[in-house]
Amino acid sequence: MSAVQVLRDGDAVAIVDGAGSAVAIVGPHMGARHRTMCRVRLEPGSSTVALRHGGEAVWYVADGSGQALPDDGAPLPLEPGAMVHAGAGVGYRLQAADDAALHLVGGPSPPDAAFARGGRSDASTGPGELRLFHRDRPSKLVPMISSDARLVVWPGVGAETANMNYVRLQPGEENQPHSHAQSEDTIAILSGRGSIDDLTNGTTLEFEAGDVIHVPVGLEHRVKADRGSPVESVGGPCPPDRAMLQAAGPT
Fold first, then answer.
1. Number of other residues whose CB lies within 10 A of the CB of residue 203
2. DSSP one-letter code for 72
3. 120-154 burial by CB neighbour count: b if 16+ within 10 A, else e?
4. 35 and 95 share a domain?
5. How many Cα atoms are found within 13 Å in the side-chain-facing hemisphere of 160?
6. 205-217: per-residue pLDDT in tens?
7. How many structural domains does the chain have?
8. What is the residue range of 39's domain?
9. Which of 1, 3, 121, 210 is the most buried (most CB within 10 A)?
10. How far is Cα 166 from Cα 134, in angstroms, rounded to an integer?
11. pLDDT in tens, 191-207
12. Per the confidence metrics, is the pTM higher than 0.70?
């Protein structure tokens, strides 16, 4: 039977040009089918290799500064809280500033075999764009997730597969028990610590900053800030749980 996993380690991905590291924590190597969730650290002046995916990708800036550099178009400035959405077939690089490291969380959704090998997809250049969003400028709030749950990159802004939510749980706060009938839930913990109930299997797992939670399709679960601190995270159901979004009401 499938079960919720709390993960910290993963497979190295050769996408860094210069000094830094990239590790795929969630992806096909551990059974995920719908999202790749990486932790990438670029030292000052370093960048990713040139990237392009057959599908979409989304990246969250956890710390530092830099630029997202599309093959065509103006650079997009990166700061903590920024989210970069790459449409299918868009060529781009992510680059740290000369005087600051850049820490990113995200990756292609759905997974991209070429990305796992450290290069560009063979997909031809697509009609999509490289677009910039920010956690502090959400287009929708979802109280059923938490008192501070923000939809930032989601179908409401044209992200059909690579979505990213930003969620804060206050100490003692918890989700309503829920499941996603056709989506995996992937949650990267940015700060704090808590636990997740795998209600389908009757287990509870603890997590802390740096962990990534993976919930397979259809498992009922509940995330809790029950260990004395707020919990800050990014991620969400992938592909988007459209039934949940519809239940949450209009934009």
1. 11
2. S
3. bbeeeebebebbbbebeebebebeebbebbbbbbb
4. yes
5. 5
6. 999 999 999 999 9
7. 2
8. 5-134
9. 121
10. 10
11. 999 999 999 999 999 99
12. yes
